[in-house]
Design a protein that fits this description.
eight-stranded mixed beta sheet; globular; six-stranded parallel beta sheet
């Protein structure tokens, strides 16, 4: 270990905070801390609780601990029994020991995520159906008032899904009910005061402002009605012109009236917000009842019930805390406040490792502020904080590029990245930029660069990774790699159930379950199962679709009720010749689906399809590796690459931005419950006060996490980092960062160059900045 690592491992007399930058050996430090406690402090392995973020990390740490103590057979059994797990795993183990005290069935089960999602969805739909029957007028008003159908940039929001998102946020906050709204400061007096002051304005638009102010001052303070919104909306048509930059007209138009409209929307729809609160409360009750009927818990219950048990039974809390001399927490930046509250209940001495710059799991409710508050608390108490800055992974040129792009950006702590690994001199620049006119040309450019790199050495493809923000970007790269004859594997995301061959098989099952599912029916006819062209499908029409399907698969329909789904699919595959000509990767995916269906074949076919759809919508499931998957390029999301490293990393599709849609109903602790309503005057969607505050906070968090995501992507590279993007469309934040820094003269002082290859329709031209 380095001296900094050694100091962190051996620190005593305080809680320990280790800020571990990328490539700094944080897992090694965690394992060596465990070993030091056992070997030098005499702590029994079973008296150390090691908490990790994922099952994969827990397994890796347990395996490395077993290898670390291979020469100590006397410790082998206790090492294997050591508490090394995720927080969920720890909670399940503790609740099973104290099931009666926790009010749980001793044989409770833990729902896997797809089934939990399905039960929660059923609860949400039942809650809304019940409210519609009991309070039909209010529910109809709610559906008319919410801005549920005016977004034109993608899939429309869904009320049940929106309420489930609110419910999830509520649970993560450790709350059982949505808090009542706090009375906002009344802006009406200030607005009227400014309107009366408009007479002092001069300029080309002053007259129009005075006309508007007179109309505004004529409005009654109560009751609130549509006319209030009609008047305020007219202010948007009055230009500021040459009025005073600090006068009442500007303050009215830019600040007070927009806020006043938000307040009015909240007041006008206060009873509907209460209805939304009632819906969430009912969802909670119905979902809990469904789980209770099955003696089951979901992952959220594990944490909540463990906290409830420890807070309500002091003897169990003290007994649990007394089991452990020290808690080791890995990836603390990825925890949320509920998880920290749990750890805080049982900790005697804490050893936490994290890096705020690598916190990228906001969609799982991770709060990097938890780690920051822990660190600041130690510093305020005069305790030392260990900072591991030496990077043992990447070339210095790569680390310099990371700093140039991201230091000072929101969400990024400026911390020096010190290159500690020795590399032989590089014959070519370590950092490159590839730019193309279209995503397809970008993918071809990346494939050509991979082929060039492989030809220079040997085709060691497993040293290369292409990282993208989301798997919706992988299509062009898959096609380009296939055309170039480069073996690859897609992993990390919803790739398996999105694969073409899997969609074909699921469409076939869907039509066998429901002959009226025309989307699935056309999918089957267009697939290699039937091989029909779009023109032929259009020509034969609906009656022809059913006839074509029945001709090919009609004999399977009566079998669907009793034949195992895997046998049903195998029969269809054999009779249709679907497998002929499929690449090995596609065959491996089909084998994986058949294995999944075989394991779950006891369920009704319709329920099995629902579970698979829930898995597709909510979970990441990698494609099956082909038989010879050792020497392949990895095409994966940045989230899936967390914790990995590759000699050559392409961070690609930088032109792809984030999903700009925001929830119509939103809740955050401290901000409250808010919604986007239809303005009664204009019909356009407009946020109420709480919704605007939540959306503003979500945007701030999203921007910070986007920068951290790019930071994680770039720091996966060991020897070569290549950024690529297409010039088509609006510039994303990542593309702007790459362009601004890549073309800056300051880069030359760092001793590294930035080649830029530009692909056009006419070919490829090499440029050197």
């Amino acid at each position: 270990m380095t001296s900094a690592q050694e100091h962190a491992v051996r620190r005593t007399g305080q809680d320990v905070c280790v800020v571990a930058g990328p490539g700094s050996g944080k897992t090694t430090v965690l394992i060596e801390r465990f070993a030091w406690l056992v070997e030098e402090r005499g702590v029994a392995p079973t008296r150390v609780l090691a908490i990790t973020f994922t099952e994969k990390a827990a397994t890796e740490i347990k395996e490395r601990l077993i290898a670390r103590f291979a020469a100590r057979p006397d410790l082998r059994e206790s090492i294997e029994r050591a508490w090394v797990s995720t927080i969920d795993g720890f909670c399940a183990r503790l609740l099973r020991e104290h099931a009666i005290a926790a009010g749980l069935a001793p044989d409770f089960t833990v729902l896997d995520q797809p089934l939990a999602e399905r039960l929660a969805r059923e609860a949400a739909e039942e809650a809304l159906d019940g409210l519609l029957q009991e309070r039909p007028d209010e529910m109809r008003r709610l559906m008319g008032a919410l801005d549920l159908s005016t977004q034109d940039d993608g899939r429309q929001p869904d009320l049940a899904r929106s309420l489930l998102d609110v419910y999830e946020e509520l649970r993560i906050a450790g709350l059982r009910e949505l808090p009542s709204p706090q009375a906002p400061s009344d802006l009406w007096p200030r607005a009227r005061e400014l309107a009366r002051s408009v007479d002092t304005e001069t300029g080309t638009q002053a007259g129009k402002f005075r006309e508007w102010a007179a109309e505004f001052l004529a409005l009654p303070s109560a009751p609130l009605n549509r006319e209030h919104f009609v008047v305020t909306s007219r202010l948007s048509g009055v230009r500021l012109g040459s009025v005073s930059k600090s006068g009442p007209a500007r303050e009215l138009k830019k600040e007070i009236v927009p806020l006043l409209e938000m307040q009015w929307l909240a007041a006008r729809n206060a009873d509907l917000l209460d209805l939304l609160r009632a819906a969430v409360t009912r969802i909670d009750a119905l979902y809990r009842e469904k789980k209770r009927a099955d003696a089951a818990l979901d992952f959220g219950d594990l944490e909540q019930d463990t906290i409830r048990l420890l807070e309500s039974d002091d003897a169990i809390r003290q007994e649990t805390a007394g089991r452990f001399d020290e808690i080791l927490m890995d990836e603390m930046q990825d925890t949320n406040r509920l998880q920290w509250r749990l750890a805080d209940l049982i900790r005697r001495r804490m050893f936490a490792v994290g890096d705020i710059n690598q916190s990228i799991y906001g969609f799982r409710h991770a709060e990097p502020a938890v780690f920051e508050e822990y660190r600041r608390g130690l510093e305020a108490a005069g305790a030392a904080v260990d900072d591991l800055r030496e990077n043992h992974r990447s070339r210095p040129e790569i680390l310099a590029a990371v700093s140039r792009l991201l230091d000072g950006q929101p969400g990024i702590e400026p911390r020096p990245l010190i290159a500690a690994r020795q590399f032989p001199p590089a014959a070519t620049p370590a950092v490159e930029r590839l730019v193309a006119q279209t995503p397809e040309l970008e993918a071809e450019l990346v494939a050509a660069r991979i082929r060039e790199l492989a030809d220079k050495d040997e085709p060691v493809y497993h040293d290369i990774a292409i990282l993208v923000r989301a798997l919706g970007s992988t299509g062009p790269f898959e096609r380009a790699l296939d055309q170039a004859g480069i073996p690859f594997l897609v992993s990390g995301g919803r790739t398996f159930l999105e694969a073409r061959e899997i969609r074909d098989l699921l469409a076939l099952l869907a039509v066998l379950v429901n002959p009226l599912d025309e989307i699935a029916l056309i999918g089957v006819l267009r697939s290699p199962f039937a091989g029909m062209s779009d023109e032929e499908i259009f020509r034969i029409g609906r009656e022809g679709w059913q006839e074509a399907f029945e001709t090919r698969f009609g004999r399977l329909r009566p079998l669907a009720g009793f034949l195992a789904p895997d046998r049903l699919l195998a029969t269809a595959l054999d009779e249709s010749g679907y497998l002929a000509g499929l690449p090995e990767r596609a065959r491996a995916n089909i084998d994986k689906l058949l294995a999944y269906v075989r394991r779950n074949g006891a369920r009704q076919l319709a329920e099995l399809l629902e579970d698979l759809e829930a898995l597709r919508a909510t979970q990441s499931e990698a494609e099956a590796p082909p038989p010879d998957a050792g020497n392949v390029v990895r095409l994966m999301t940045i989230h899936a690459a967390k914790g990995l490293e590759f000699k050559v990393v392409f961070v690609s599709a930088l032109h792809r931005g984030t999903d700009r849609r925001k929830p119509v109903i939103a809740f955050l602790p401290g901000k409250g419950l808010g919604a986007k309503w239809r303005n009664p005057a204009s019909g356009k969607g407009q946020s109420d006060s709480a919704h605007a505050a939540v959306i503003e906070e979500l945007k701030r968090r999203e921007e910070a996490e986007e920068n951290r995501l790019l930071y994680v992507a770039m720091t996966r590279a060991e020897e070569r980092l290549i950024l690529s993007y297409s010039e088509r469309g609006r510039k994303s934040a990542w593309r702007k960062l790459a362009e601004t820094v890549a073309l800056g003269h300051a880069l030359k002082s760092n001793g590294w160059a930035w080649p830029c290859a530009t692909a056009t329709e006419g070919g490829m031209e090499e440029l050197l900045d």
